[in-house]
Design goal:
The two termini are about 20 Å apart. This protein has three helices and five strands. It is about 30% helix and about 35% strand. It is of the alpha+beta class. The protein has a five-stranded antiparallel sheet, with helices on both faces. The chain has one domain.
């Protein structure tokens, strides 16, 4: 996967131009520990291709599922993920944090 926002958008546009349905996920807000900064993006196609990253892996499966729902319904979504400092070690993170991700279809 590529991480540069311009590369993600270029890849998403190429997939769309080739006839694929595409959704874009964008990190809109972070608090505490977050592997990717606000502005990070991931593109997902209906056929399951992905480019970019919104979390370095810890929430990307859930974001990809939401992207598929967004492509089906056409409705954008604001996803909110978080973990407390106390629970962070249980899920393999060094400390707690929150991240909000906006998912929208690419028109």
């Amino acid at each position: 996967m590529t991480g540069d926002v311009e590369d993600v958008l270029a890849q998403a546009a190429a997939w769309r131009d080739a006839g694929e349905q595409v959704a874009i996920a964008t990190v809109t807000e972070t608090w505490g520990s977050s592997p990717r900064p606000a502005g990070s993006q991931m593109a997902v196609t209906k056929s399951g291709r992905m480019a970019g990253s919104v979390s370095g892996g810890c929430i990307e499966g859930a974001v990809a599922d939401a992207a598929l729902r967004t492509m089906e319904t056409g409705a954008p979504q604001l996803l909110d993920f978080g973990v407390t400092n106390e629970r962070a070690w249980e899920v393999g993170l060094a400390c707690g944090g929150k991240v909000k991700v906006f998912v929208e279809p690419l028109a």
